[in-house]
Amino acid sequence: MAESLVQTFLGLFDGLKSIPFGKELIVFIISLMPILELRGGLIAAALLGLNVIPAFIICLIGNLLPLPFILWFITPIFNKLKKTKHLSKLVNKIENKALTKKDKIEKAEFWGLLFFVGIPLPGTGGWTGCLIASLINMDKKKAMAAATCGVLLAGLIVGTFSFGLLKGIIG
Predict the structure, then answer these.
(1) 9 Cβ partners below 8 Å, 6+ apart?
(2) pTM higher than 0.90 for the full model?
(3) Residue 132, C-beta contacts closer than 8 angstroms, at least 6 positions apart
(4) Cα 141 to the chain's mean position, in Å?
């Protein structure tokens, strides 16, 4: 699924490839996005032929950038949006979906969040992990440290796949 989403975004951003640092910008933008995050960015970087080290750094920065904002501001934003007629259902749906995964984090806190973010499975990642951490009132600094370590772990796993196996398959 991730690869097909990445292919879609590569098509959308195709015009950026021709500008200086355009491929890097595409990878950065993909890494900022929920669902794709660093995992999608690394796949895109491999498909675009970028060097693994700069790609990893770009993806890491792109994935980590939104996380403090999610940790510190999502709960107050959600509380305000719940008071609106049109967005309250959407916010409740997002919260409920995230909270179905809270058991994985709540019991072990730091380690639970680290592995939730770090094991690249559908529905996990920095965005969701930080949303859950915020909703269960986990210590923000501890959550940020765990999410950062998790993103690094996910990057090592997906980077190994994307720049090793994927490159071997597609040449």
Answers:
(1) 26, 29, 30, 33, 36, 40, 44
(2) no
(3) 98, 99, 101, 102, 105, 113, 116
(4) 18
